[in-house]
Design brief:
alpha/beta; FAD/NAD(P)-binding domain; 2 domains; five-stranded parallel β-sheet
Length: about 400
């Protein structure tokens, strides 16, 4: 009898898990043929079937990327791997992870992987939902921001972020906001109207005396740094300070802190102080057998304070440990902590990188600052989307 594995969610964490869990992951025809002849597993993925390449969303500001380009129907990808797809929304997990309940049914499993993505702490600052836009809300929200930007010929624009630090690591989208600020400056200069706009960058999570490469790039572009600032409330036409003084803003792009989806709190899944699924260093959900999680829905165990969620490395470790557990072996595979991304400023670029083992990205083959990094970033994007579409 085949082992039933359920994967919940179809974002980066789930797709990386599939990549590392299945043999011959990049040879789909042979894999499809082999798994139809023989497979120990009956794998089911529950999600909406639409993968969004979120790292490219800030580039909507320059018009070089759009929703259609960055959205992939992953059902053919799953079919090539003999994975059953269920278009549904999970609402509960019960029986120690063995029962997955959706809006339209329930499904039993022998092993469960949670890659459901994040929720955002929009209630931290009143008015966030009503008066700000966020790249974290996806392509539609970013396109709405761009449409409003295009209607302005002058004005004041604020960009900022907040991080949820309750679980001891960077649960937030600082990188996308830095990139958005640089791309906004570039887009306005291309239109010849940059001098008619004030661009402010704010976050209560940044020390007012912060120095470094990112700060230098923002200052070079004339972006006003409101480091250390957090509004008491977003309101129509701007923001209110704690002293109730008003700051005018014609447009606000803001990324709230990351937490786990609200519905997980009523399930059998353990929830961290920060509202995320509690996992150990092997990717196992604490206290539950044969349940794993990775990506933006999951916490870290004893992380360094600078680390983000890191979907790829954690999913890789989880895949190896799932295979070990299914072969009656203990989970032993951990993952290295890493923050690594290319920040595209259109007329410049930086490779932001930190790692717990101090290894450089790609053996230091690429410079840490160069406009040429934009081509490298675009290459990574094209290769990954090509993999999802055709391999």
């Amino acid at each position: 009898m085949k082992i039933k594995i359920i994967i919940v969610g179809n974002g980066f964490a789930s797709l990386f898990l599939i990549q590392y869990f299945l043999a011959f992951a990049i040879f789909p025809f042979f894999a499809w043929f082999f798994r139809h002849l023989y497979s120990r597993y009956e794998i089911t993925l529950i999600g909406n079937g639409q993968f969004i390449y979120f790292p490219a969303i800030p580039e909507f500001i320059t018009g070089k990327k759009n929703k259609k380009q960055m959205t992939i129907d992953i059902k053919p990808f799953l079919k090539r791997r003999n994975i059953r797809f269920i278009n549904d929304v999970v609402t509960d997990i019960q029986q120690g992870g063995r029962t997955v309940i959706t809006r339209n049914g329930s499904y039993e499993n022998d092993m469960l992987f949670m890659g459901i993505g994040p929720a955002f702490l929009k209630n931290d600052i009143p008015g966030t939902e009503e008066h700000t836009f966020s790249p974290c809300d996806g392509p539609d929200a970013m396109e709405a921001f761009v449409n409003k930007l295009e209607a302005l010929n002058e004005g004041i624009i604020y960009l900022g972020f907040k991080i949820n630090k309750q679980d001891g690591f960077v649960a937030g989208r600082a990188g996308q906001m830095y990139e958005s600020a640089g791309l906004l400056d570039y887009a306005l200069k291309e239109k010849g109207i940059r001098d008619k706009f004030e661009i402010h960058f704010f976050s209560s999570n940044i020390d007012p005396e912060e120095k470094g490469g990112i700060t230098d790039r923002l200052q070079e572009r004339g972006i006003i740094l409101d480091y250390g600032y957090e509004p008491a409330e977003f309101v129509k036409g701007g923001m209110l300070d704690k002293e109730e003084s008003f700051r005018k803003a014609d447009l606000i792009l803001f990324s709230p802190g990351i937490t786990g989806p609200e519905w997980i709190k009523t399930t059998c899944l353990p929830v961290s102080i920060g509202g995320q699924i509690e996992v150990d260093k092997f990717g196992q959900v604490k206290g539950l057998k044969n349940v794993f999680a990775a990506g933006d829905c999951a916490s870290h165990e004893n992380p360094p304070p600078w680390v983000p969620h890191q979907a790829q490395l954690r999913s890789q470790a989880a895949a190896k440990n799932m295979q070990a557990v299914l072969n009656d072996k203990p989970a032993t595979h951990t993952y290295r902590y890493e923050l690594s991304c290319i920040m595209n400023l259109e007329n410049d670029a930086m490779w932001l990188h930190m790692a717990s083992d101090d290894k450089p990205p790609f053996w230091n083959l690429f410079p840490r600052r160069s406009k040429k990094l934009i081509a490298v970033k675009n290459l990574f994007e094209r290769l990954y989307l090509l993999y999802l579409k055709y391999l």
